[in-house]
Amino acid sequence: MTRPHPRQRIATVFGGSGFLGHAIVQELAAKGYVVRVPTRCPNKAQGLKLLGKVGQIFPFHTNTLSDNALTALIQNCDVVVNLIGAFTEKKGASFQSLHVKLPARLARLAHGADVAHFIHVSTLGADSASLSHYAKSKALGEESVRAFFPNAVILRPSFVFGPRDHFFNKLAVFSRFFPFLPLIRGGKTKIQPLYVGNVAQAVSASLKQKKMQGLTFELGGPKIYSLKEMMQLFLKTTEQKRPFLSLPNWFVHLQTSFFKLFPNPPVTQDQVRFLQKDNVVNQEASSNRAGTLQDLGISAIALEEILPLYVPRAYFK
Ligand SMILES: NC(=O)c1ccc[n+]([C@@H]2O[C@H](COP(=O)([O-])OP(=O)(O)OC[C@H]3O[C@@H](n4cnc5c(N)ncnc54)[C@H](OP(=O)(O)O)[C@@H]3O)[C@@H](O)[C@H]2O)c1
Q: At residue 1, does pLDDT exceed 50?
């Protein structure tokens, strides 16, 4: 007797063309999902197809995020993941629109379409009282997602590292062209960097058990570093020697005001405000409505193990 063919499970990953998106799309494909990836830049997303079997990953070109377009993308989905976000505000893409209004609409539409799982990626340090507009908008986004999709899983990663990351790759370019490395706040801010593969595992682990629904997870790596220690590790890994230059606040302010003239500023005033607070997992996160990587059964990989794999020494010789 032939068995009935089980229905193919479908996931739509908004923001799937980005850094975290690549790892999460690959993880969902490995778990057997057909994955839809809406993107404004299909060229950027073509490589995603190679992360799954033939016909398993579909980058969709979409310039509009109207309710109709979103509804079509969510249709028949089992899982919706929202990764859309930006570290700097641009014309037509404010933090309020990307981190608060869009997640609220996605959560509302996904709930209305009976999607079983909604996973929203926020950030560690999301705080409605923060002076950083990024951190504040992320906290308000979490609230709006919860309001429309109470069972959503919210992930709050610390700085995420891995090939294509936004920190070490920028540092690699900077250290090639500048004779020093600048330190904001003396490089004292504490960070708990997390491997991108562990974020992807967190997504699939949160899908496995019903008890994960409605929880918020604070995600950090196995070790806490100061920003300066992370830069020192980068220099050691790439066998470079660069002095550090501790920038006074007034100079950082002046510099970031100047950077506003650039379409892609290397650092913004808002990022400097974000770095005023440590970015580490709250050890009391393991509570009723909140959890950590351990609660998801994941052991995090150390920065020292992964960094040499994608910032090879030879590149800097
Ligand atoms: N990277 C980290 O260290 C880190 C840490 C904590 C939290 N997070 C959060 O995780 C999420 C993903 O981060 P990431 O590092 O993967 O970011 P990323 O590489 O910059 O990717 C961002 C994604 O958002 C989409 N997007 C950006 N602006 C958009 C707009 N105006 N309209 C429609 N789509 C837009 C992009 O889609 P297109 O293909 O259309 O360009 C892209 O796929 C973000 O919400 C971020 O805040 C990241």
A: no
